[in-house]
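seq as requested:
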Amino acid sequence: MKKVKFLTISIFAIALFASCSDDDVPEQVLPQEVITTLKLTLEPIGGGTDIVLEYRDLDADGPNLPVVDVSGNLVAGTSYNGAILLLNETVDPSENVTEEVDEEALEHQFFYTIGGNLDVATEYENFDADGNPLGTLLMLSTGEASSGTLTLTLRHEPNKPNTGLSDAGGETDIEVTFNVAVVD
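struct tokens:
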């Protein structure tokens, strides 16, 4: 009786494992990142004062409003090297989410949207393994004195390649709008 029971269980187990294939394994879906802080540091090429655009929402989706700050005005006719830092400060010690975004470059892309009369242009300075833009590094160049908005949007699992935010798809990890001025 024990041999029959063992044989029945063995046959069932073999049939179960044999029926599974790699096709049955669901594709891994990467979770969205928790981002409480976004800091864009703009360093003027050739020297000058760095400009820092910072968004902090330390309680994430909690009741406190985020703090949005721009440390100063951009200078007309200047190019800036930009670097984005993303942090999750809901954990101790805080987590550098930029490292994760860079490691998962194929699944992320930053978009820069210029609004109002702001006379600036942006260029991607880093790319994923397929040569598509990532955007945690950028170059920002200013034109004439002006003001408007600069919106930074990080998309998770966007369509790549794309022509911009309008056809990127994916889900928004973070989107922040800064009021920016360019002065003479």
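The CA atoms of residues 57 and 66 lie 4 Å apart.
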